[in-house]
Amino acid sequence: MIERRYRELVRRDLGEVPAVVLLGPRQVGKTTLARAIASEDPETLYVDLGDPTEASRFAEAREYLDLHRHRLVILDEVQLLPGLFRLLRGQIDARRRAGRRAGHFLLLGSASRALLRQSAESLAGRVAYHELPVLDALETGSDLNALWLEVASRTASRPAPTGQA
Q: What's the pTM value of the predicted model, to 2 decimals?
């Protein structure tokens, strides 16, 4: 697995705020990053809301989350349950009252306007946001000079475009 620079940032925020929302387009590594964070603590609960079996646990969401109130809960594909944010607000507040200040939820989803609006309204003051971009050259461990020379040599070897008037 490629070590993402965002891993440390997400971990730091989980130590400071109750919820972290990790947004980004499909296939950029949100789930892989979340699973890597989950692997650091066997108590972490990962739930894929895109899986109907796992999502069915949220028919009684409050009770289900109450059972796991002492764990970091990772909810993947959170945009599939938009009404969940109001419930998470109450969950966070109850956990705070019990003395647990940070690291309650890691929420993964696509960066849709509706998701951002709902989470911002419901989780104001309780959440940090990060948008996970595609891998960059620094994260791949590639030799940037070699990449630059390869691109330059390919560009130089192409025939010049012919101009048409």
A: 0.76
